[in-house]
Amino acid sequence: MNIDLRPFFVLWIILATVVIALIVRRKMVASHEDDSLHVLQGAPMIQQVAIANKLDQIDKWGKILTVIAVVFGLLVGAAYVYQVWVQSTQIQPGA
After folding, report:
1. Which of 6, 46, 48, 54 is the most buried (most CB within 10 A)?
2. Domain residue ranges in the chain
3. Could you tell me the pTM of the whole model?
């Protein structure tokens, strides 16, 4: 049983790249965030709410994709270790 794991590895790299891109995107959006609270002013408060909503969405997708990337990476790693173990325990013909 020799399965080529390269396509799965490439998919894992793509998932990890998307997670890293979300981290960078979150940093960029958070850099525009104002740390002081504007309660009585209309425009800054609306902008704060919009940025907070963007950060919430990025955080939600970041958490989901991080869990998927970690679990998928562990599964690909386990499949590789299992494949190497099975190959090492098989008796070679002519040996």
Report:
1. 48
2. 6-31+46-89
3. 0.81
